[in-house]
Amino acid sequence: MPSIDIQVLEGVFSDTEKAEIITRVTEAFGSVAGATIKGGTSVRIHEVASGSWGYAGKVLTTADALRMREQG
């Protein structure tokens, strides 16, 4: 069945927030794919080490991502 992988920088989301992300992504996917497929959907959150992610040629850190969250 479907497998959804989400990558985030380490230390940006709490365990509670990661659980909510998993629940909401599963619900959103299931609302399109249907209940049977939703029931077999796997969602994994992978945390990438701070400084090991680049965007537009810039290295991102956990501190950068936390600032982005504060900005909304």
TrEMBL record:
Keywords: Isomerase
Molecular function GO labels: isomerase activity
Domain named 4-oxalocrotonate tautomerase-like: residues: 2-62
Pfam families, alphabetized: Tautomerase
InterPro entries: 4-OT-like_dom, Tautomerase/MIF_sf
Keyword Ubl conjugation: no
Family recorded in the similarity comment: Belongs to the 4-oxalocrotonate tautomerase family.
Entries under PANTHER family matching the protein: BSL4019 PROTEIN, TAUTOMERASE-RELATED
Protein name: 4-oxalocrotonate tautomerase
Organism ancestry: Bacteria, Pseudomonadati, Pseudomonadota, Alphaproteobacteria, Rhodobacterales
